[in-house]
Hints:
2 domains, 3% strand, 59% helix, two-stranded antiparallel sheet, mainly alpha, Multidrug-efflux Transporter Regulator, Chain: A, Domain 2, disordered C terminus, single chain, elongated, 2 strands, 7 helices
Amino acid sequence: MRIGTLASETGFTQETIRYYERIGLIPAPLRSESNYRDYGAGFVDRLRFIANCRSLDMTLDEVRHLLELRDNPEARCGEANQLLGEHLGHVRRRIDELNQLAHQLEVIQGQCHEEQAARDCGILNELDRMEAAADDKETHVPGSHGHRPG
């Protein structure tokens, strides 16, 4: 099948499929006589596996490791269990960070009690008074906006 069909069957964009090929998550497909990529059914299964991992918010490195285990049927599943345990710990830390963020936003929102001029807005004044973090990465929770390409 061609890349458009593969994209339709898996829900990935053609660009994402090409990207996954470039970074080695999927192997390079065979080429037709007219030099089109020719994807077999195994690609659908592999991309669905990747989609399942990504739906659990796994990083591409975590997906790569699980694919390596999947590609080696004699490998021990303890590695997969360890990886999943580490990922679960990361998710739990993110939940704690998001709860802290929600509390901070509630406090800031509590500064606004009535409709008034922007110069008197409690929210805007509180945001002016807050000490900014040295680096946005220290306080911003990755993945908290629900946007992920692909």
